[in-house]
Amino acid sequence: MFKRSLSHAFGAAMLALGCGHAAAVRAEAVVVSSSAPGFIQGQLVADGQALRLPDGANATLLFANGRLLRLRGPYDGVPGDMTDSAVSARAGPGDDRFMQSDLGAARAMGNPLDAALERALTIDPSVSGVQCVKAGSPPALRRPAEPGLDRLTLQDMVSGERAAVSWADDGSAPWPQALPLADGSDIGALRPDGTPVGTLHVRMVGAAGGAALAVGMASAGCAGQIAAAMAALRDAMVPLDLFLSADRGGPAYRPGEDIRLLVQTDRDAHLYCYLRNARAQLIPIFPAGAAMSARVAGNVPLSLSGDRMPLRAGEGPADLEVRCIAASRNLDDEMPGRAAAFRPLSEEAAVQLDRAVSRLRETEVASAQLFLKVR
């Protein structure tokens, strides 16, 4: 499998932020970004946990000491056991399967993690669930987007104490001093008529900030907050990534058999996929026509299956190729065959596809190819 992405640019940026630690890293980490099915942004990677990435998939991890480690599949191992020198030795010359940096060295450039965590720790009291708070630092509140919640009361569900929230012009508010917080506190949000809006389950995280705070939030189960913070860090430091595979684990098919493929991007993107058939004709297979959006959600596996489109092995031996292109913006007006799904393109259109991709200088692009055999 071949992938055209910004991996080399990413590696240069990572090296510019600083490498070269000699000590072993802290074992716990949080997933910053992943194109591999089964890995969720903000997911905690526990001490001693083994990870397995299929060929062509990527995952970027953030450790509590500020170390960023990017793994490229195929990978099967325990990343927390790897020292920096071990990463360098395993990577070898020209091998970018293991790339790393010290996020702390990014402070001179404006550390994107600090700003992301500050936003994530500003709580919308109308959102139920586990919410993390830095120990010793009462959280700031953010006015809910839902109409009618400009006037809101918070209530300690154990003591029954209540406090009204007064919003500033910018939609912020300090945490009410009348409601002191402790780890495990349950705080209800009430409408003006007393009806409940939601309940916060507060978790205190002792880390002062940075990567240690991010890992602590993941460990405490603050899924929504840490996912939002990791998305901001990903967008600032990790290139767009695309994973393409045969969903049954192998690219070999029997004549007449349906071909099922799995595609996943590591963030929201616009996706365009083409099949080159046994006659060397290029056929658009995703999106399925002009009426279907090319936009796909990140971290969500997308199935391209033969029961809904012409991805079926022919009656005789053949070599097929599927190529998918993900972009950070809408390319509908630039990609050939956008309105002609499942119909072979002209030879000129096939050439146009390569030209269109090569002209995308200011657009973040990732691509993947998969070669299929019918025997």
TrEMBL record:
Top-rank taxon: Bacteria
Domain DUF4384: 253-328
Entry keyword set: Signal
Pfam name, any one: DUF4384
PROSITE patterns registered for this protein in UniProt: PROKAR_LIPOPROTEIN
Signal sequence bounds: 1-22
UniProt protein name: DUF4384 domain-containing protein
